[in-house]
Design a protein that fits this description.
Elements: H1 4-13, H2 21-33, H3 36-52, E1 54-55, E2 62-63, E3 80-84, H4 87-94, E4 102-105, H5 124-129, E5 136-139, H6 145-158, E6 163-166, H7 182-190
Parallel strand pairs: 3-4, 3-5, 5-6
Antiparallel strand pairs: 1-2
Keywords: DNA damage, DNA recombination, DNA repair, Metal-binding, Zinc, Zinc-finger
Domain Toprim: 79-172
GO molecular function: DNA binding; zinc ion binding
Length: 195
């Protein structure tokens, strides 16, 4: 229906998560309407992304340097480590503007059904970061079966080495009990506090 080059662009856009055929087609038409400078800027940005962005040698976060901004910051508490699944989770936590520790990116979660085992994750480098000064490791992982499995695995590895905590799970503010699933309700009861 379209020229091959245009179909190729649609195909490339469909490789992006959540982009179906219609959205990819819209993106292709948008790019087609750009002038040459705009297309060159986009192409250069993509090439620079691949050339310059790498993983922090300490925590696994995205960086253009050896260490990410959190690992090299003297203003961050280097003795509190928040463990996350991927770099995207860091920006969510940072948006609170409350956490002043550092991060550790696992690059996934244990999922035996998909063949993702602990040795394929960034867990060993986390263990190397733990020392006598480590105050706490916060496991900020998704409350899924895979997240729970990964958190339990890491908790066992760190047992007796430092304080390990989890994010609280429970009922979101503004929701109703009759719409809450059993697992969320169970976690809310387990994590209850005195008021």
């Amino acid at each position: 229906m379209y020229p091959k080059t245009f179909d190729d662009l649609i195909y490339e856009f469909q490789k992006l998560p959540g982009v179906g055929a219609k959205t990819a087609e819209r993106y292709a038409f948008t790019v087609l309407s750009w002038n040459e400078d705009e297309i060159s800027e986009m192409a250069e940005t993509l090439i620079n992304l691949k050339k310059k962005v790498k993983k922090c040698t300490c925590c696994g976060n995205l960086t253009e340097d050896e260490l990410c901004e959190f690992c090299k910051s003297s203003k961050r508490n280097q003795n509190i480590i928040c463990v996350v699944q991927n770099p995207k989770d860091i920006s969510v936590i940072e948006s609170m503007q409350e956490f002043n520790g550092v991060y550790h990116v696992l690059d996934g979660l244990i999922n035996t059904q998909k063949g993702v085992l602990p040795d394929q994750l960034n867990i060993m480098s986390l263990l190397k970061r733990i020392n006598e000064n480590t105050e706490e490791v916060i496991l900020a992982l998704d409350p899924t079966v895979e997240g729970e499995t990964t958190a339990l695995y890491i908790s066992k590895l760190l047992e007796g080495k430092c304080r390990v905590s989890r994010l609280a799970h429970g009922i979101p503010v503004g929701s109703h009990l009759d719409y809450t699933d059993a697992m969320t309700l169970l976690k809310a009861f387990e994590g209850r506090k005195s008021s």
